[in-house]
C-alpha cells in the first residue's frame, strides 16, 4: 500500500508540475499575444496616419499640378497672342515698306525716263530702254528673296 500510495503521490506531483509548466507556458503565450496585439495596434495606427498623410500630399500635389497647368496654359495663350500681334505688325510694316519701295522705284523710273526722253523724241522709247526699265532691280530682288 505504501508503494501504491507513493506511486500515486509521485504521479500527482508530476501532474502538478506539468500543470504548472503548462500554466506558465499559457501565461507566457498570453503575454506574448498581448504584446503582439499592442504592437499590431501601434503599427496599424502608424500605417493609417501615414496613409492619411500620403493622401493629403497626393491631393496637394494634384492641386498644385492643376494650378501650374492652368498658369502654363494662360502663359501659352498670352505669348501666342503677343506673337500674333508681332507677326501682324511685321506684316503691316513689310507691306508699307514694299509700297514705299514700289513708289520709290516708280519715281526713279519716271526720273530716268524723263532724262532719256528729253534727249530723244518725246513719246518714243526704244526697246532697249524699255527692257532696262522693266527689269527687276537688285533691291526688289532682295526684298522678294527675304519675304
TrEMBL record:
Top-level taxon of the source organism = Eukaryota
Alphabetical GO biological process terms = defense response to virus; regulatory ncRNA-mediated gene silencing
Write the protein's name. Answer: Uncharacterized protein
Where does this protein come from, organism-wise? Trapa natans (Water chestnut)
Starting at the broadest rank, the lineage of the source organism is: Eukaryota, Viridiplantae, Streptophyta, Embryophyta, Tracheophyta
Amino acid at each position: 500500500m505504501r508503494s501504491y500510495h507513493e506511486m500515486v503521490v509521485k504521479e500527482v506531483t508530476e501532474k502538478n508540475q506539468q500543470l504548472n509548466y503548462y500554466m506558465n507556458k499559457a501565461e507566457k503565450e498570453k503575454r506574448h499575444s498581448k504584446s503582439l496585439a499592442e504592437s499590431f495596434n501601434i503599427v496599424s495606427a502608424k500605417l493609417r496616419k501615414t496613409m492619411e498623410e500620403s493622401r493629403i500630399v497626393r491631393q496637394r500635389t494634384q492641386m498644385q499640378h492643376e494650378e501650374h497647368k492652368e498658369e502654363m496654359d494662360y502663359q501659352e495663350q498670352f505669348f501666342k497672342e503677343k506673337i500674333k500681334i508681332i507677326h501682324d505688325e511685321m506684316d503691316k510694316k513689310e507691306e508699307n515698306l514694299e509700297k514705299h519701295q514700289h513708289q520709290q522705284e516708280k519715281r526713279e523710273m519716271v526720273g530716268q525716263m524723263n532724262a532719256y526722253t528729253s534727249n530723244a523724241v518725246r513719246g518714243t522709247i526704244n526697246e532697249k530702254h524699255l527692257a532696262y526699265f522693266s527689269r527687276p532691280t537688285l533691291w526688289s530682288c532682295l526684298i522678294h528673296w527675304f519675304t
